[in-house]
Amino acid sequence: MARVDETLFEGEHYLGRPADSTDKIITRRVELTKAIPGFCNKDLTLLEIGCGNGATLILMSDEMKTCTGVDVFDHTSEFKKAKAEKGITNCEVLLKNIEQEDLTEKFDRLICFEVIEHFNDDKTVQRFTRWLKPGALCAISVPNKWWVFETHGARLPLLPWNRVPFFSWLPRAIHEHFANARIYTKPRIKNLLEQNGFEVLEMKYITAPMDVLKEGALKRFLLKTIFNTETTTSPFLSTSIFVVARVK
Prior knowledge:
- The chain is globular, with a radius of gyration of 17 Å.
- The chain has helices spanning 24-34, 55-60, 76-86, 124-127, 172-178, 186-194, 217-225; strands spanning 41-49, 64-71, 91-95, 107-113, 132-143, 198-207, 231-232, 238-247.
- An 8-stranded mixed sheet has the order 3-2-1-4-5-8-6-7, with helices on both faces.
- By secondary structure, the chain is an alpha/beta fold.
- The protein starts with 23 loop residues before the first helix and ends with a strand.
């Protein structure tokens, strides 16, 4: 599914492992998804593309009939442990490379958080429609170009640190030559989705979660003052763009 190695697959969070269900970026995306009118229902099935260790699926499980996740990387042991601890029975994870393999079921809802930017071809998004029922609602997030730091890192010459401030602000051709994943503006992700079978209903900037900061006075101060809302009107305070879309 990804064009980079697993250590870079989880976007802003701790490199080398999927984000935890307690990480604020996970809980913020879940709360935004649950707030979409009509998205959650005990009679509806949910598909997650790029589910990692299933942290998001587990948080969504109490709102849906069933939850199915697919990922190219194997985190099933973590997923099974979390399921057992919480007594969840309506979630499963499938190991698949969805750029090359198909699913046999069609779903009512889809979530895909910080994954699209890793595909070898943007057109892979068109494959999503194969696995969704007509009119299915989707919640999708992608990294925001206007955040100060490069969330996925870049292969920069002579620089040991791969998250140089403002690198993501460079023109697309330069950025994508060095970056580990693509990055998006609102117009770019809107065009991508609308050209591949989706109608975009809403877009928001997700406020930077500060998950990468160590616990302490600085982090508490920032979360109480500047980064204290689920979404923001300022693109410069946001790590991700949250998109609500519907299958045409």
